[in-house]
Amino acid sequence: MSAMNERRWNYERWVSEQKCAIVILNQPLNGRQCEAISRWWTSVHVRVCADGGSNRLFHELPQLTPDLIVGDLDSVEKDVLLEYQTRGVEVCETQDQNFTDFTKCLQVIAKRLPDIEIVLAFCISSGRLDQIMGNVNTLCNSEKFMRADIVLHAGDEITWILRKGRHRILTPESARGGYCGIIPIGRPVTVTSRGLKWDLNSTQLEFKELISTSNRAIADEIQIETTDDLLWTMTLKH
Questions:
Q1: Staple partner for 101: which of 61, 71, 177, 233, CB 3.0–4.6 Å?
Q2: Domain assignment of residue 193, yes or no
Q3: Is the whole-model pTM more than 0.90?
Q4: Domain that holds residue 195
Q5: Is the pLDDT reported for residue 3 higher than 80?
């Protein structure tokens, strides 16, 4: 690999070492997500629910209170909204239908807390394909209006964008030996990797040709060098 500047990723220290935000989307929360949310809730800088994500948080983790609810408010239950308002939660109603509630949450965070470094968005990675693709599109577009990295946290899987350049991903113990994927976005990319079961060596990836899915993270750290942005995803086994 070349000697260009390298970006390091350490999942187990994101919350403790970076200014972090949590966003709860209007998608089911599983047990692993609830455990992670509860563990990190008091350590992050801001906690935001995307419209109907308020329902998910209220019914799964009623003891937790967000700082902000953002969206067009067409999904949040009236009783849930009233309860959170009595707890002092700020409501930011945004009616622009050109953006998803997820994107609106990120826009509000970027405007109010521009020093946030990473956003953990709790969502699903299976079920409705349109929602999944909408979340991925938000990942791709987020750099237009905020500097923070956005991570999709599905409980048993985490996904984020690796921008053009060189990356070193410290593999959490729960991901070692698990599945991972390197997926090009929009245009062909040339990728070199180390630490995967099936490493890439200046391999071109593109849709309708070759993409790297169902690979495995077998080393303590994964090194990836890419000529353009790509989607990185890895499973958490426990």
A1: 71
A2: yes
A3: yes
A4: 162-235
A5: no
